[in-house]
Specification:
Layout lengths: L1 H32 L1 H4 L3 E4 L2 E5 L39 H17 L21 E3 H6 L1 H8 L3 H10 L1 E2 L10 E3 H21 L1
Antiparallel strand pairs: 1-2, 3-5, 4-5
């Protein structure tokens, strides 16, 4: 009986410490030290939540940079259904899907470059908000044409929004598509305003 009581007391004590006190402490410290990150890196526009820096979005309009594919259930970039397709690279279903995506990009983009792999394959989570620099530059000509901007202006925008790892071996530079498209909207609005004033 004594052993049972000791075990029960230990279970309750550890449950309170690891299941309640520790998570509350960590959450409290995170909100105190890193409030924006602790609350999901949410982005607002005119006091309206429009997205998060951490979760990709599907951009369908021709005048926006496209994200990498998402295969989450029910809808793309569904954070409640994060996950990969689990299809092996030898699976014909994956090969067919990637082939369709390559053909779609070749029809949509007017250049002779090979389609970057991250534009035709989903990430492991299905939520990745980033694309490679190669994938961003691949879309420059289309975006410039759709927005009536120069290719140099778009390339400068990519350069300004490139995220480079602190140490080079930790990864390659990437672009957050959501933030890049926001910057694109700002650039278009500024240019339109300048043209209107003249």
């Amino acid at each position: 009986m004594h052993l049972f009581r000791s075990s029960l007391v230990m279970l309750l004590l550890l449950t309170l410490i690891t299941g309640l006190a520790y998570p509350l402490l960590v959450t409290g410290l995170a909100n105190l030290i890193f409030p924006w990150q602790a609350n999901g890196s949410r982005i607002y526009q005119d006091n309206k939540l429009i997205g998060s820096e951490l979760i990709g979005q599907q951009f369908t309009r021709d005048d926006y940079f496209k994200s990498r594919p998402s295969i989450t259930a029910e809808m793309p970039y569904n954070s409640m259904a994060s996950g990969a397709s689990q299809l092996a690279s030898s699976n014909p279903l994956l090969l067919n899907e990637v082939t369709k995506r390559v053909q779609m990009w070749q029809k949509a983009v007017d250049n002779d470059q090979a389609v970057p792999v991250d534009l035709v394959t989903a990430s492991g989570s299905g939520l990745d908000p980033h694309i490679s620099l190669q994938a961003a530059y691949y879309q420059v000509e289309n975006i410039a044409h759709s927005r009536q901007l120069t290719k140099d202006e778009i390339k400068q925008l990519i350069k300004e929004n490139t995220i480079t790892p602190l140490i080079s071996f930790l990864g390659k530079p990437v672009i957050n598509v959501f933030k890049l498209n926001q910057a694109l909207d700002r650039l278009s609005a500024e240019k339109h305003k300048r043209v209107s004033v003249q």
